[in-house]
Design brief:
By secondary structure, this protein is an alpha/beta fold. The chain is 34% helix and 23% strand. It contains 12 helices and 21 strands. The chain has an 8-stranded parallel beta sheet. Strands 13-15-16-21-18-19 form a 6-stranded antiparallel beta sheet, with helices on one face. The longest helix has 21 residues. The termini are far apart. 50% of the residues are buried.
């Protein structure tokens, strides 16, 4: 479990991916492997010693690691470009890291994966990249022993009195050594620097993030935060942004509980939406695609619901937890994900394939470049924590019928066009919502057709009647009058 942060409250999940990573062998072996890597790096880099030249290099690297980001999020893998990033955690294990398995991932509409499931050495990570190269997937390397040893066990500082520390020059050499193991693969998108860091680790995560951005400006240094609620948690997220200076923010919260839906999910998203708008950083999330302690295996509509609620709140990247089902012998209570421990597809694989290919890929391309203007809950009584009730405005005059979450978006350079995402608030039943259109400001309403990737049926309407399946959503373009 991650180190406890007193500022975090309202977390609903008793299990974290960091536990999974550590249980897969990321412990003392990390330090041993990293020690060997350090020896190789020191031998290759004479500036890493204590000579005056080494001190000069250290100071230069230290300064570089604290400089502003080398490239904007729009210029990095996954966060940049038109395609919406759809990722997975816990890929096939090394014995199932085959071309057929990676084609199976690509066929399901995923665009990237994070290594794991015992892929915690340069050889298995490199082999995963080799498979990904051939099917067009991108890869974030998690668990590289050199990067993880620094992230989890050391401090990066040029103050040699600090225990268990590396100079910035030495840390840079370790990262360069790690990069050398993978850089020849076009599928390499970056490093998973730290999964769910405690606030006490933010300075080290920030140093590593800065180093990756300096030595490999075309790669994405990625970290994900624990979930939480309330002002203390919002301050925790802001501290992460201020200290780490990341290219994106990401969190995981798994709301499909054994006894219903975790309503604090909305507050968690409200915090990330606000932090994303304030910082200009894209916000990612994980969706629950497996059953585990006190969490049900989600249905197809609950999978879609998590995705669409996230989109309504401005999400710019979706990741699945998990793809491959963790081995039950681990004793962690996992049941079924998209693929069983012995490699068989479950119904969730088909549901994810349909959702990713037929909805999330085309709709994500529309929403990825847009700016979230508002997110409101219509006919949702009682309102979940932090949810904003619908109120008439410049584009919509009314919302009646069943409960819905209504996201309104604009282009970065506001041309008066608005994009309207109407999401069923209910993950388990169909909904009917009638929206009044403010014809003073809205000249036409066009429906987005995912199959064609285009808007059609633009017309001047006074009302918009939206019929939604359980957990589903619909996207519209509102042209200015």
């Amino acid at each position: 479990m991650p180190e406890q942060n007193p500022s975090i409250s309202g977390t609903s999940q008793p299990m974290h991916r960091r536990t999974l990573l550590q249980a897969a062998g990321l412990g003392a072996g990390v330090l041993a492997a990293s020690g060997m890597a350090a020896g190789r790096a020191a031998a290759a880099d004479p500036s890493a010693g204590n000579s005056p030249a080494g001190n000069s290099a250290s100071a230069t690297a230290s300064s570089a690691a604290t400089e502003p980001a080398a490239a904007s999020s729009a210029d990095l893998p996954l966060t940049g470009g038109p395609d919406f990033p759809i990722g997975l955690f816990w890929p096939p294990h090394p014995y199932e890291t085959t071309l057929d398995r990676y084609q199976e991932i690509s066929d399901a509409g995923f665009t990237f994966l994070i290594t794991g499931n015992y892929q915690f050495d340069p050889q298995s990570g490199g082999y995963a990249l080799q498979m990904a190269d051939q099917v067009g997937l991108k890869v974030l390397i998690a668990g590289d022993p050199r990067v993880q040893a620094i992230a989890q066990y050391m401090a990066v500082t040029d103050d040699r009195s600090v225990p268990s520390s590396l100079t910035t020059a030495d840390a840079t050499s370790w990262v360069q050594s790690a990069l050398g193991s993978y850089a020849s693969h076009p599928s390499l998108a970056g490093f998973n620097v730290f999964d769910e860091p405690a606030q006490s680790r933010f300075p080290t995560v920030g140093a590593l993030t800065g180093i990756v951005r300096k030595v490999a400006p075309g790669l994405l240094p990625y970290s994900n935060l624990v979930p939480g609620n309330g002002p203390g948690y919002a301050a925790f997220v802001q501290a992460y942004i201020d200290t780490v200076q990341p290219p994106l923010i990401s969190f995981d919260r798994y709301p499909i509980l054994a006894d219903g839906i975790d309503l604090n999910y909305f507050d968690n998203w409200a915090i990330y939406r606000e932090a994303s708008l304030k910082s200009g950083l894209p916000a990612w999330t994980y969706i629950q695609s497996v059953g585990f302690n006190n969490h049900r295996v989600p249905t197809a509509s609950q999978l879609a619901w998590q995705t669409n609620i996230s989109l309504a709140y401005g999400c710019k990247g979706i990741q699945y937890f998990t793809y491959w089902t963790p081995d039950p012998a681990r004793g962690e209570g996992f049941t079924k994900a998209l693929i069983t421990p012995d490699g068989k597809q479950t119904p969730l694989y088909g549901a994810a394939r349909k959702l990713n290919r037929n909805w999330l890929q085309p709709v994500g391309r529309q929403l990825k470049p847009l700016v979230s203007e508002s997110v409101q809950h219509a006919n949702d009584t009682p309102l979940p924590p932090s949810a904003v009730a619908f109120a008439p405005g410049d584009h919509l005059t009314s919302a009646t019928g069943d409960a819905a979450v209504i996201g309104l978006f604009r282009n970065p350079q506001d041309d008066g066009t608005r994009y309207l995402l109407v999401t069923n608030r209910n993950p388990d039943a169909a909904a009917s919502v009638r929206l009044g259109i403010n014809r003073t400001n809205v000249g036409g309403v066009a429906d987005f057709v995912p199959a064609t990737g285009r808007y059609s049926g633009a017309a001047r309407r006074a009302t918009l009647h939206v019929q939604l399946k359980a957990g589903a959503a619909a996207l519209y373009r509102l042209s200015p009058a």
